[in-house]
Specification:
Layout (H helix, E strand, L loop, with lengths): L11 H12 L11 H4 L7 H13 L4 E3 L4 H9 L5 E5 L2 H4 L6 H20 L2 E4 L2 H4 L11 E3 L14 H8 L6 E5 L10 H9 L8 E5 L8 H7 L2 E4 L8 H8 L4 E4 L4 H5 L6 E3 L3 H14 L14 H32 L39
Parallel strand pairs: 1-2, 2-3, 3-4, 5-6, 5-7, 7-8, 8-9
Helix pairs in contact: 1-14, 4-6, 8-10, 9-13
Length: about 375
């Protein structure tokens, strides 16, 4: 997942995280696996050569897989030619209750692959603490790190709501409810959000409901500043970035208790949790309507900036590279202390000739492992 002309809003959180890492002094090479353009077999055919070529050219210290599922499984188990870190974000561990047996099977296979990838990886990152429970018993606790995706506080900051409404052509007299939708994904429960909005639309003030789907990254701050409330009704989430971005823009949030939303909005006046019922969601939206105004919580988000998150990721990278180097060093010492028997033509061994035997590491993903390069 990465922004493109076809999918401008796809994977913006990856792009932002890379921006933070580069600002922190790391060299980062992006290898985009075009699942949508090349089909699911891209994980089994194209990926092998692509990863090995990228490693040979760039010589990274760490491979960071930014999402779970088949891709993470293939790299962590079959192409583990550098220390591997895998980030899990929600559906890749929890699955999706999608319609149709085919999609249900694909989702369940994806979560199965995620668990295998987590076992094989050198470190696991989950974006919210509740996701760690999905790996309970499968991965040692000290291998799991809770690090949410960061947000770009230089882009997402408060702006004049009226000016933003005018820029987007929105009626300033209406109450604008924004819905974080992902192309009609049933996990987001758009029917629940729409039903809640319909219950307040009969009031004297007009209410408009907006799906935040396919919006280019540069436009998103305008929408979050133009809106009057963000509504989240998902069945499950990891750590939804749109909630953090809304808070950074001062936009009130009404949400069901999902993912880490309760933690993010705790103590913020103007934000509300509600049961997954249209009437209660409508009541909370009505409270936002009556209160009016914007939020004042900017200071609470500093720890979620892309710069702050980059420093936490650097610590994980440092840990796995040290451990990986120590592991490879132990392997090398074991081989030297117990060498294979190697004979010259006259029957004497190498040591009597003052020679050193040659060893060949067992290849991992068709490439032999070696010490990490001096840059990321």
């Amino acid at each position: 997942m990465y922004p493109s002309a076809t999918f401008p809003s796809q994977g913006i959180f990856v792009q932002q995280q890379i921006k933070g890492l580069r600002a922190a002094g790391l060299e980062v090479r992006v290898l985009l696996v075009d699942r949508w353009g090349k089909g699911p077999l891209v994980y089994y055919h194209w990926l092998r050569n692509a990863v090995q070529s990228a490693v040979a050219e760039f010589e990274p210290d760490v491979i960071h897989v930014m999402y779970g599922g088949v891709m993470a499984d293939q790299i962590a188990r079959r192409h583990h030619i550098r220390p591997v870190v895998v980030s899990f974000r929600g559906s890749d561990l929890l699955g999706e209750n999608l319609s149709g047996w085919t999609r249900k099977f694909i989702s369940r296979y994806g979560t199965y692959c995620s668990r295998r990838a987590a076992k094989a990886a050198d470190a696991v990152i989950v974006v919210a603490s509740h996701l760690a429970s999905a790996l309970a018993g499968a991965v040692p606790a000290d291998k799991i790190h809770v690090i949410p995706s960061g947000i770009d506080l230089d882009r997402f900051n408060p702006a004049d709501p009226l000016a933003c409404k005018q820029k987007l052509g929105l009626d300033p007299r209406s109450f604008h409810v924004l819905f974080a939708s992902n192309n009609g994904d049933p996990v987001k429960r758009p029917w629940l959000a729409k039903a809640a909005v319909e219950q307040i639309s009969h009031r004297s003030r007009p209410v408009e409901f907006h799906y935040l789907t396919g919006i280019p990254g540069p436009e998103m701050p305008h929408w979050l500043n133009a809106g009057d409330a963000l509504l989240l009704t998902s069945l499950h989430e990891g750590s939804p970035n749109v909630v953090k971005e809304a808070l950074a823009c001062g936009l009130p949030v009404v949400s069901v208790n999902v993912g880490d939303v309760a933690e993010r909005i705790k103590g913020i006046e103007g934000c509300h949790l509600a049961a997954a019922e249209p009437a209660e969601l409508a009541a909370k939206l009505d409270l936002v309507w009556q209160r009016g105004g914007r939020l004042n919580c900017r200071a609470q988000l500093e720890d979620l900036s892309i710069q702050s998150i980059a420093q936490k990721l650097k610590q994980v990278y440092g840990k796995v590279t040290r451990e990986y180097g120590e592991k490879e060093s132990r392997k090398s010492k074991d081989r030297i202390s117990s060498p294979a028997v190697c004979r010259t033509k006259d029957g004497s061994d190498f040591s009597k000739q003052g020679m050193q035997p040659k060893y060949h590491d067992e290849p991992m993903g068709e490439m032999a492992p070696h010490q990490p390069a001096p840059h990321a």
